[in-house]
Amino acid sequence: MERLFYPLAIAALLGFFAILVNYPEKAIVQIDQQAAELLGGRRLLDSMSFIGDPWMIAAVSLTLLVYLWLFRKNYRGMLFVLLAVGVGNVLNQSMKEWFERPRPELQYGLEPFSFPANHAMVGLLYLFTLAYFLSEGTVSRKTKILIWLTAVGLSMTVALSRVAGGEHYFSDIVAGLFVGYAWFVAVAVWYELRERLFRKRDENRKKEEFPD
User: Fold this and answer.
1) From CA 188, how far away is CA 136, in angstroms rounded?
2) Rounded CA separation 158/176 (Å)
3) Are 19 and 178 in contact (CB under 8 A)?
4) Residue 124: HSE in the Cβ half-sphere, 13 Å Cα cutoff
5) Does the pTM exceed 0.85?
6) Are 132 and 139 in contact (CB under 8 A)?
């Protein structure tokens, strides 16, 4: 991953805690109200929420797992998906229960707590994880940029759709994006360190088997 991603992850994590501590404050309440007025009722944006629905996340993640297993034989990559998306979802649900922030207006069929937004956090996690492995398999810089721009655009769209539908406050979705990105980078750092370690082991083993 690009080195710029690391300090951004730290900044995102700090941003999450800043929102966590201050979301009852008047300034953030006003931002939430303004965002609700600006985006509320926009049906096209609201309809994009399906991209972050659990069934979509599960279907795409399962497809990615099968691809990494059958076509790439990348078992550590499979663990990457499980850590990023699976554990990320567990973290999200745990944080909701821990912080207990009620939704703007409790809608039937939804869990009562909203912070951080699941669609924003886990939506980003599965889209960024998909982008990570798709871009890893291409050598074209333009294609990589296009893949990542698409992932970022879809993540933002899914997050904002939850404000348009009235399910979340704007601060919920920003916090979800922040903590989701921080968790994604943490998993990616672990993955890349492990990849380098195993690559060095393979190189050393080859040198021992085929000395100059």
Assistant:
1) 12
2) 11
3) yes
4) 24
5) yes
6) no
Distances (CA, A) of 25 to 76, 96, 163, 192: 43, 19, 19, 39
C-alpha to C-alpha distance for 168 and 163, rounded to whole angstroms: 5
pLDDT along the chain (212 residues), means of 10: 76 94 92 92 90 95 95 91 96 92 72 88 97 85 92 96 91 96 94 78 57 58
Q: Enter the tokens of residue 52.
A: 């972050």
Q: Dihedral sign, CA of 107, 111, 113, 119? A: negative
Cα distance between the two ends of the chain = 33
> What is the predicted pLDDT for the residue at 137?
73
**CA dist., res. 100 & res. 80, Å (int):** 29
Percent of the chain as helix, strand, coil, to the nearest 5: 80, 0, 20
Which residues sit opposite 102 in a β-bridge? 113
pLDDT at 210: 56
Position 111 scores a pLDDT of 73
Other beta carbons within 10 Å of 207: 10
Decide if 129 contacts 67 (C-beta within 8 A): no
Structural element, H or E, at residue 93: helix 88-99
Measured CA distances, 55 to 45, 58, 119, 196, 202 (Å) = 19, 5, 12, 34, 39
Query: Among all chains, which residue has been given the structure tokens 């069929």?
Result: 109
